[in-house]
Design a protein that fits this description.
2 helices; mainly alpha
C-alpha cells in the first residue's frame, strides 16, 4: 500500500521524519533516503570480494582530555 503524501512517516533507523517527496521515490520503505543509501553501501561493502587493507574511517575524539600524571 502506497502511503499518502500528507501522511507523516518516520525512519525506523534514525527516527527522522521522511519527507513526502522522498516517499514518492521510495514508497514502500521505512528508512529515510540517507539511511537507505547507507544500508545499500554497507551491503555493497559486505558483498565485495576485495578486502580493504587500510581503514577508511578513523575516529578521533573531538575534545581529547589528556591527563598528566605529574600535574599537581
Amino acid at each position: 500500500m502506497k502511503p499518502k503524501a500528507t501522511q507523516l512517516s518516520f525512519c525506523s533507523r534514525c527516527g527522522d521524519e521522511i519527507p513526502p517527496d522522498e516517499l514518492q521515490f521510495l514508497p514502500n520503505t521505512s528508512l529515510c533516503a540517507f539511511c537507505y543509501n547507507t544500508q545499500l553501501e554497507c551491503r555493497d561493502i559486505h558483498n565485495s570480494s576485495t578486502k580493504i587493507s587500510q581503514p577508511v574511517l578513523t575516529l578521533v575524539p573531538q575534545n581529547p582530555k589528556v591527563q598528566d600524571s605529574n600535574a599537581a
